[in-house]
Amino acid sequence: MNNNQIREFLTDKNWVEPHHDSRFIHPHHPYVIINAGDEGQVTLRETSDHGQNGEEIFTFYSLDQLQGWFENNIGE
Known about the structure:
Helix content is 29%, strand content 26%. It contains two helices and four strands; from the N terminus they run H-E-E-E-E-H. The protein is globular, with a radius of gyration of 11 Å.
């Protein structure tokens, strides 16, 4: 999984990385998306301390999985 592709996908969906630490947030969604593409995964967590302590909801192992989740659950 490519970090740059994931970063581009998320920023295209208006998710921001305010601290430049691979944690993406969106003001209208109760999630934090942690981009660890170099480790082969992206994690969706509940918003809490920018995702550090939020409960893990899903882990995605490909950009296709992440895109599918967005289409089915967020409608983007």
